[in-house]
Amino acid sequence: TVTFVDEEGNVIKQEEVEYGTGATEPSHDLIPGKLPTEEFEYVFSGWSRSFNFIIEDTIVVARYITVLRTYTYTFYDSDHITVLKQEKAKYGQIIIPPIVLDKEASDHTIYKFIGWDKEFTNVVENLIVTGKFEAIYYTVTFLDMYGDVIETKTVQSYDSVDAPLAPTADYHTF
Questions:
Q1: Of 32, 85, 114, 130, which residue is least crowded by CB atoms under 10 Å?
Q2: What is 63-125 written as a DSSP string?
Q3: Is the pLDDT of residue 173 over 80?
Q4: In what helix (H) or strand (E) does residue 46 lie, and over which residues does it extend?
Q5: 47 near 63, Cβ under 8 Å?
Q6: CA–CA distance from 106 to each of 101, 110, 113, 114 (Å)?
């Protein structure tokens, strides 16, 4: 008797064979898969021993090779559509983010890149990361001739600023 089993000893197939003859390998659909872990997946690689010339009761065990799992990490722009970078990487590899520059929107506002929406270091799962941006504001300060502040205004890029009323001072015209 030739008994094909999985790694836990569960019977996949049993076959009676005559002395000195071989057994027939179980069909592929009978060979159980081995559940992956977060780090590894397992690929059926063959059997623990030959079953071509049987002279005694024989147990043949399914064998699997261990393979580091591959995951995909994707970096999106803040629009959640534009892919900045997409990589496939093995479990544990360091995630390298794309270089992201400030950007200008259609309304001429300039946005500064301020980081990503989640933390990441090494590949441990499929990962989607989105860039975070904020509008850049400028402070415009109007000073008098003595360096004293007349007025301060905050504006976005490309916005115009109305000057404050001209200051008055004896013997000076502004």
A1: 114
A2: EEEEEE-EEEEEEE-TTSSSEEEEEEEETTPBP-PPP---EE-TTS-EEEEEEESS---B-SS
A3: no
A4: strand 40-47
A5: yes
A6: 16, 9, 17, 20
Query: Residue 132 pLDDT > 70, yes or no?
Result: yes
Nearest Cα neighbor of 71 from 122, 119, 125 is 125
Place of tokens 């520059």: 101
Question: For residue 48, what pLDDT is reported?
Answer: 96
- With tokens 């019977």, the residue in question is 11
SS3 172: strand
Q: What is the mean pLDDT of residues 3-29?
A: 94
What is the token pair recorded at 43?
A: 């690929």
DSSP β-bridge partners for residue 67 = 41
CA dist 167 and 165 (Å) reads 6
Q: Say what the pLDDT of residue 144 is.
A: 80
Strand partners, 140: 153
Q: CB within 8 A of 52, min separation 6: which ones? A: 22
pLDDT of residue 155: 86
Residue type, 147: G
